[in-house]
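Re: Re: token formats

Sure, here are both.
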Amino acid sequence: MIEQYIAKSIACACGKTHRSRVETIEIKPNVIEHELIDFLKSKAYKKLTVVCDKNTYRVAADRVCATLEQSQIPFKLHMYQEDSVLPNEHFIGNLAMGMALDSDLILAVGSGTINDICRYVSAVAGKPYCIVGTAPSMDGYISGGSALIYNNLKLTFETHTPTAVFLDPQILSHAPKDMIAAGVGDLLGKINCLTDWRLSQIVNGEWHCDFISDIVDAAIQKVVTGSDQIAAGQDEAIADLVEALLLSGVCMDFAGNSRPASGCEHHMSHFWEMRYLLEGREAVFHGTKVGIGTVIALRAYEYIASLTPNFDRIKALPHKPFDEWEQDVRGAFLGASDEIVDLERKSGKNSPEKLAARLASTEANWQQIKALAEQTVKSELVYGILKQLDAPTKPGEIGVEKEMARQAILYAKEIRDRYTVLQLLWDLGELERFADQIITDYYA
């Protein structure tokens, strides 16, 4: 399915020409020994920097290195020795200083973190990169952006896509079950992404593409219908999961940003990740947090569907002054709050003027918004699939305390200038009431 979208341009009814910059995607058994080597020889690369950590070396990088040696392709191995690798300034700098300066390709062996680091460093160095994936744990293999931690805040940096991606279903199906479940969680998050995107089109007139949405929706359906087989670890089902995740990446490339693949469920995930980093806690898989955030986000749409707003009352609600908002934000974001405050100063998304404009549009389009909320997938479906995979479904199951969970619902919307259902609830004066409802249900 994915072959029809890569390495080509598509003139779309939305008015844009969508381009995928990835040249090759191979999802086959023994892809390291065959398709990878054939690709490298066809490009005549003279020297590679192979990047991995201790875990991905055991899983696949040892095979990569052995195959490169047998094929007489020169390379330098850069293996992180730490037990936990983070996509932050330290590990990015470590690769920048340790890579072979004369290498003409960076070959990443890993999944989310390794991929994001290599994508960023290769872009800065002006070198292409490829990846051998080791787990179906996230959708970022072929994204054009790197999700990095900068000054303790999770930010997306526009970089470039890999030249090629190589995935062996037999390697992927032997990934830890929690990593596979994280991939499912990340993919299920697209249910809310697409709904948030459509919501912003209705309220703000944001550009939207049905062609892209339909691709992502088809990827979601493939995972939903195959969840039993994924839970059983079947190679074919795992291959379908990773293809669905790759399709999500293609659609980010088509859109030119992460809108088709990142909504408020990702913002909550980023909030928890940032707080865990600041507090020195052990990291939790991105897709695991996204799955939890997706259940909350879909419950937010269910909450919206139940409302009958009195817009005259809403418009008369007092507006919190900027300095009070800033105090609340600094209490939630701690050492990462400067970036959040600066973003609001630039965007002014919470200003009285922009709020008034959105409320006018929300009132005029309320029946369409309500229909969207009523028609979106129910939270119980996502909850059930996550339970089937023995994945966490509530913040407390990954160690998020009551107050941190509440803060994520209230303030995660400040991480991006991107309209989502959490912003809608804030606009309607309902966000705190919704947060209290979730916290009561989850922490009673």
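Second one below.
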Amino acid sequence: MTIIKQNDLIDSITDALQFISYYHPVDFVQAVHAAYEKEESQAARDAMAQILINSRMCAEGHRPICQDTGIVNVFLKIGMDVQWDSDRSLVDMINEGVRRAYRHPDNVLRASIVEDPAGTRKNTGDNTPAVIHMEIVPGNTVDVQVAAKGGGSEAKAKFVMLNPSDNIVDWVVATVPTMGAGWCPPGILGIGIGGTAEKAMLMAKEALMEPIDIQDLKLRGPKNRVEELRLEIFNRVNELGIGAQGLGGLTTVLDVRIRDYPTHAANKPVAMIPNCAATRHTHFILDGSGPALQTPPSLDDWPDITWDAGPTARRINLDTVTREEITTWKPGETLLLSGKMLTGRDAVHKRIQDILARGESLPGGLDFRNRFIYYVGPVDAVRNEVVGPAGPTTATRMDKFTGLMLSKTGLIGMVGKAERGPVAIEAIKQHKAVYLIAIGGAAYLVSRAITHARVVAFAEMGMEAIHEFVVKDMPVTVAVDVNGTSVHQTGPARWQEIILQRKGRQ
């Protein structure tokens, strides 16, 4: 009989969550670097360079890889011969570990969890509760997998109940483009096949924590149907040309991991969940000897990569930019932004919509005329930081508010990540505005361009409040110009054609 003390589990959970907030799994770093080395699309190559640079900075500075520090997922395999020395439930112990990790004074993590999800959506303040799955197994240890899943990639989860004769690969290849770039490719696809609807989804999530080994699989060849599927999906998804950040390129997925389970003869449940450029997970085992703490990797495992915007990058003064000036910006062009910008995500946009619908004025000092808004919910600052990691939020969540903001507030530009949908693009074209992207998965790197930050409205909304950032040479790409041309449409289309042409010549 093994006795596990409550503080051993609490301390191990806390340590694991702090660890994965700033250390990528080494296999992920190596996979991104390999993709970077072979990438021919300059836009995708630049995006992966920033992701790798950000990853090393976070490993060195012990600050979050992404401003979205995730919803906590915990998977436990509890030995039948384990006894707990605790006055708390197992769920309470885990949530206490989460609470301590997200409130850690040296590395504060963003609290993103809201309760009453269909109603008030009030932030719980400490990122609890975690989503916990338990399994009782033979043995005398507790095996624990911990992950922090970002909202952008989680939002792209897909499920289908196929007919038994339907082709799984065809469904995946048809579905991945509908996910857009909000999951911050390149990443990993977790796929669950069989069981029931909920079992398939669970397997897809669990598959994301398996090692990246697709290149080894390609070298040795598949040994079963699941491995055949992995290779076929990997090749066909990358042939789509979506590329890093959806800008077009050779690598969209770094690996495809699949788990399966027996299912009803009439069914073929298939679930797909992507992991993003902030892939965060780790593993530990409690055996009664004390807490299981993580071992830091060597910084030698990170490639030494440099990146700059290049001689053609255009420097923009946000304090003096005009509507006439933005009409000269070209799709795909790199800009370096300096000056003041406002921030706000969908919760702020909804509040502004409600204020305007009541015929009221915006709070004093809040003026969007001829200004840019950055879709971001930053991490709280620690030590001498101006602001914590502050990478972009998926912009499609703001699409339904775009027409209102451009027509009623005087806003002329937006900064976020991923593509815009047809409604937003039409509004951008109609009002001769622009949409720019920063690199998702490079939040700490982006925050270094912010020289001053203050809350200007809705302070009670926490990370959703409107801030004013002063930035210096913040790198962005023109994603939608004043004519409505979107690089998330033109880039992948171009690279898919290139890839398929090459395949035809083989």
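The longest helix spans residues 42-61. The two ends are 61 Å apart (CA to CA).
- S.
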